[in-house]
Amino acid sequence: MPHTASNTTLKNTVNVFTSSLLTSTGTFPKPVVGESIVQSGNHAYIFGGRDAEDSSLTNDLYIVDLETSSWKLVENQGSIKPTPRYFHSGIIWNGNLVFFGGIGFDEDKNSLCGLNTTEIFNLETKTWRIIPAKESETGSESDAGTSTCEPLPRYGHLYCVLGDYMIVYCGQDLSNNYIEQINVFDLITEKWVHSSPFAYHCGVYRSNCTSLDHDSDFSKFCTAENNNNDEENTRRQNQFVGSLLFYLNSNFVNVKRELILLKLYKVSNTKGNGGGTDKREGSNSCFYFEEQDISEKFVGSSMPPGLRFPRVYMVGENLVLSGIYLTSSRQAFVLWVYSLDRANWIQLDTLGLLNHGSWFKCLSMQQNNQLVIFGNKTRKLIQDYNVRQSNYDNMVYVELEAYGIYRKPKIPHYSERSEKLGKLLLTGVSDMEILTLERNRIPCLSKILYKRWPTFQRLLDQAAEQNQDAFRMSLSELGPQLRNMLYFPVLLVLWKDKRNLLVNKNTV
Questions:
Q1: Whether pLDDT at 303 is above 90
Q2: Any idea where the domains of the chain sit in the sequence?
Q3: CB-based contacts of 279, cutoff 8 Å, min separation 6
Q4: Which of 64, 61, 63 is nearest to 84 (CA)?
Q5: Which example biological process does GO assign this protein (predicted)?
Q6: Range with the poorest average pLDDT among 20-29, 205-214, 497-506
């Protein structure tokens, strides 16, 4: 496997604009181990974990506004209390937070125990429901079929949502043995409907997964060439539920990387690969997975190093990878991207902001093309990593747009004549200019920029609401480069040649 090349770090000429550091406000979690984090739009929920100071398990639920870094504790409005747990999983579906598995505490035995219960928090009513694990001895045929699909107790497992199903993969038991099993939970019927083997040693320490948009170019790039006839393609399309991409890395001295594509299919009969029945509206269904090793598709001249607790995200047609990089000479939270446009892995340089402090959990804000990383700017990463401690004192925002990482806008189809006419009128309908660092002026239309870049939207909206002096002061906080510019006020935007540019608008 190729080594990591030193010249493939994607740097930015004005990195000061590409990342920012905020301090958390309000009531935020204490240092904790093994908590789950679930994103819902511009908010995120933190649940459970083990207190890093006294080792007690917690069942607290926090919410943070990702745009303001403001936190508060979510109050339980019901009589049912959730089970304290850590190294569990959490997803959001249809206005509900769904948590599964992890490590709990058995008060009767006065010891830790593995969990395979599912607990659901309704965001509207702010109440909990507990779905206990079913015993294998059941009375009805329906329950008997469901019990065979029950997952084993586990912690540190992987998880994902495909449509109306929560998929749980692998993890470990309390003896630290890997569980080679995939389970499917029907979020509508709230039953486990499928269980099958999965011959990989997967856990959050060295692997992660993400769902793929079936119609995206990235998904098509991952999928093998289709040689089926039209009838077969139609049948399989009707059975298709969704696809997942696994990233696994191991042997951190001589790194082994694997990328596995999994496709889930649902067949409306009882004869399938892998057992388990889903009884909706009286009909039986079985599920099966198709597995494809696509590691060779992602081999490039540069490759990510071995990362602890990796996370993968899809941002447009780009696969973003984050994780903890540890060597004797460097300990840092790093970001890598595989871009279809470049056909290579590239490290994102954030000017050392993530090289200092302790950073662990990370989320992708797709609507803003941003990454949000949680941590503490003054603590030592290696110390917190050794005890698996997460911190939420600070939040770092990374603007992926600045590196050319974004969701491409959906362009409506126009005739060739219309496109030519639009290009001819482009300079005539411009209402503002882009001023490059080389002092070149490029006319453009603010409406197009407004629709194109979320960051530009936010700045223009802010300008419309504030007076000139207040807007000037808020821009000054972005750094000395703006304060010293000849043209002021200016707005930071991007241009298609991946340079950072400054926009000068006479009337905001």
A1: yes
A2: 6-403, 416-504
A3: 142, 145, 189, 285
A4: 61
A5: signal transduction involved in positive regulation of conjugation with cellular fusion
A6: 497-506
Burial 126-155 (b: 16+ CB within 10 A, else e): eebbeeebbeeeeeeeeeebbbbbbbebbb
Per-residue pLDDT tens digits for 311-346: 999 998 899 999 999 998 889 999 999 988 888 999
Tokens 């569990």, residue located? 88
SS (H, E, C) 132-157: CCCCCCCCCHHHHHHHCCCCCCCECC
User: 468-476 and 454-465 helices cross at what angle (nearest 10)?
Assistant: 140
Helix (H, G, I), strand (E, B) or coil at 16: helix
Token pair in block for residue 477: 């906080």
DSSP string, 409-443: P-PPP--HHHHHHHHHHTTTT--EEEE-TT--EEE
Q: Is residue 241 helix, strand or coil?
A: strand
Looking at the domain covering 6-403, what would its CATH class be?
A: mainly beta
Distance CA 65, CA 26 (A): 11
- In the block, tokens 């700017």 appear at 377
Start-to-end CA span in the chain (Å): 52
Residue 3 has which token pair?
Answer: 């080594």
